[in-house]
Amino acid sequence: MAQATHHSPKEFMLGFIAEDAVGTAEIPATDNKVQLINIDSISAPSLNTEMVADVRSGDGRTAKASDVYVNNKLQKREISFSGIADYNTLPKLLQGVMSVAENTPSPSDDRYDIPVTYSPPDLKHGTVGSSNSNEYTFTVFMISPETNGTLIFPGCTVESLTISGDMGTESGRMRMEGSFVTAYKPTLTGGTDVISTKRNSYSTNYYYLTDMETHNICGVTDVVLSSFGITIENPTEYMGFQGANPDPEVIARAVPEISASWEASFKYDSDSMDLFNDYEAGTNAPLTLTDSDGNISFSAGYGRLTSVSLDEGAAMFISVNAKVLAHSSGDMLQITAKDA
Predict the structure, then answer these.
(1) What's the number of CA atoms in the CB half-sphere (13 Å) around residue 96?
(2) CA distance 154 to 140
(3) In 3-state terms, what secondary structure has residue 211?
């Protein structure tokens, strides 16, 4: 007989926790909690299980059940998410996608930098790190309302992260979307519940476009900003094998590069009309969006426009996309995100 039990999609949660040892699933505790993400909704993970169902030699012209080959070893799994950026989650995710520690010289607390000479940490299975180090991976929990229904993914890295805001939506409250990846074997049945005392809720302190009172884009000072978004991508490859599962031995990041690109829409006028020419000429495209209170800021001294277009709205706007580039010294990209 069918069960009467049913669940709302909003009862499912997504959280992550830094691992003490690379690739070893971290066990939540009251003093080491899973950080929940303020997700829009839960999405099924991409397990990428390998299945070969080609017909093999045998009687008749049909594929037999015994012909099917299923492989779940060393497959790259992906857990995607989208939701609201807040003081509890965004700083941790920035540190994860950049694989850098927080830059804390006063007055630059809560800043995360990609230096020109960026080189990610060496990550080997079993390497012990700490929450204050950039040398760690995450265990990701897809928390189910069913007892022992939680899915657990050890050895995850943040491969991509997008931060965006639009003045036409929630007064510019900033959103985020991204993906965790892992090639470690997940726990897909009988996963231990993450009870409320072992979960750290997301914050109600948010970031807004309106936090940034200085907005200079592509050499145009004080643009009338409509929307902005930036994406950081740090490719992850899981290499080698060890253990009985087997699981990866080494995690490589930023091959061939860590990259960042941004997009913005702002009012078209005599100051911004030359951006079409700047695009064709390959002119430098710097970015400065700063908040004097230190809540949220983005700075990239060098870049090149990759597209320019017109955008009809309340007035005529111009939309630009750019790739962030490194120079001879300093930082390629600096992002400030206030931490709770």
Answers:
(1) 25
(2) 6
(3) helix
Distance CA 161, CA 238 (A): 19
Closest CA to 137 of 71, 74, 92: 92
Average confidence (pLDDT) over 289-316 = 94
Alpha-carbon span 303 to 114, nearest angstrom: 14
Among residues 54, 8, 27, 338, the alpha carbon closest in space to that of 206 is found at: 338
Q: How far is CA 34 from the centre of its chain?
A: 17
Q: Are 140 and 16 in contact (CB under 8 A)?
A: yes
What are the two backbone dihedrals, phi and then psi, of residue 36, each rounded to the nearest 5 degrees?
Answer: -80, 150
Over the stretch 90-113, which tens digit does the pLDDT of each residue have?
999 999 999 988 876 555 579 999
Q: Read off the pLDDT of residues 159-190 as tens digits, 9 standing for 90 and up.
A: 999 999 999 999 999 999 999 999 999 999 87
Q: Which residues pair with 17 in a beta bridge?
A: 139
- For 198-245, how does the pLDDT look when each residue is reduced to its tens digit (9 = 90+)? 999 999 999 999 999 999 999 999 999 999 999 999 999 999 999 999
Could you give the 3-state DSSP secondary structure of residue 236? strand
Can you spell out the DSSP letters for 286-306? -EEEE-TTSSEEEEES-EEEE
Of the candidates 238, 264, 277, the residue with the CA atom closest to the CA atom of residue 324: 264
Query: What number of other Cβ atoms are within 10 A of residue 115's Cβ?
Result: 15
Q: Are 286 and 219 in contact (CB under 8 A)?
A: yes
Write out the two tokens for 109.
């607390």
Please check whether residue 16 is in contact with residue 38, taking contact to mean a CB–CB distance below 8 angstroms. Answer: no
Q: Taking the CA atoms of 173, 181, 260 and 133 in sequence, report the sign of the dihedral they define.
A: positive
Q: How far is it, in rounded angstroms, from Cα 150 to Cα 189?
A: 7
List CB contacts of 281: < 8 A, sequence separation 6 or more. none
> What does 86-127 look like in DSSP terms, one character per residue?
BTTTHHHHHHHHHT---B-STT-TTEEEEETT--PPPEETT-
Q: Rounded distance, CA 92 to CA 19, Å?
A: 13
